[in-house]
Amino acid sequence: xxxxxxxxxxDPQAGAAVKAADRAHVFHSWSAQELIDPLAVAxxxxxxxxxxxxxxxxxxxxxxxxxNIGYQHPRVVAAIQEQAGKLATFAPxxxxxxxxxxxxxxxxxxxxxxxxxxFTNGGAEAVENAIxxxxxxxxxxxxxxxxxxxxxxxATAINLTGDPRRWANxxxxxxxxxxxxxxxxxxxxxxxxxxxxxxxxxxxxxxxxAYEGPGTIAAVILETVPGTAGIMAxxxxxxxxxxxxxxxxxxxxxxxxxxxxxxxxxxxxxxxHFDVVPDLLTFAKGVNSGYVPLxxxxxxxxxxxxxxxxxxxxxxxxxxxxxxxxAAVATIELMxxxxxxxxxxxxxxxVLGPGxxxxxxxxxxxxxxxxxxxFWAVELVRDRETREPLVPYNATGxxxxxxAAFTAACKKNGLWPFVNxxxxxxxxxxxxxEAEAKEGLAALDAALAVADEHxx
Length: 456
Hints:
Helix 8 links the parallel strand 7 and strand 8. The radius of gyration is 22 Å and the shape is globular. The protein is α/β, with parallel strands linked by helices. The chain has 13 helices and 16 strands. Helices cover 38% and strands 16% of the residues.
């Protein structure tokens, strides 16, 4: 990376114009339009972005956990510019250098025989098409997914999702059945150890499969390490147990690595931590750090064979878009050359993990710290003994005031947090330096003092 350059001089008038146009014409996702106040962003570089008022923020959210290589990496920007000059766009039915090379580089890094790559425009479409593949491959209708999950906002993906964003979109007719995945801190199985949680969660899933009818289930989909829902790494043996259940009943195992993939956990894919190979693996976000929208499905040999002489009933106008694929090639190559995956592992082991645990020891509002690589969650509570969350589940308005105050304190101290329900996530770019990470932890320390005011 080139050194961080000074950000542009403040220009409040330009910022006001950007904000006015946004308010007049942009319809924002997941929002009541009149109740939001989007920040007008003037620029970004590395781990920082800044507004038109001259305020600079350390991005501990990596956008929406996708800028794994930081903002404006010159090699990726140059690759997009070069591809635009060569061939800016082309239909998906043709063989193109950028598309072929991106698929090859991804297949080199996916586990097992996941060697065929279907490109999408993002993570939700990847999940949508993975489930379609599983249903056609098995001839079965149902899919099992976990509570405390997020799989996207398209029709099938939002039904698979296990958080409240599903509620207003749930048709009740998508063939989706939810189950409890392991999470020891808030165990639905009254477990006291990781071993108990693993065994009881697998027993629960086995029962759900039995009562739903194994012959009706096409797939089980799990975020390898759930992201937005709380970064709960599964206990040892759990994913292997899910793999065994799927094999026993002819069920397709889909690993959703949209957020956890491409170095976020300190490995190319989070499945590597657990020595498990899924049948399908979905990806997006970090594949090219969101510089141009791209996602996809990595497909096993057995499922690819299903469509060797039978057409796959799906497609996208911009599947494998040349600009997106060129960005992916540059991203993957530089991640390998600059050892960014290893840097993410070091960041977690040497700075984020120890630093967050030290904060937990001093702040009564911290109930638990968990994570790996550059992928961490801090669970905020009113009472450490009872583990009562700092705010109620899916809180809004006044009920969410403690988290709103915490969020405001982060921003006041130059830290842009990733906040969901009663948690803040430490998910900076994988390229974040130790000094920058420590800067973020110091800002987080100050903000946690505000959260402490709401504890009992």
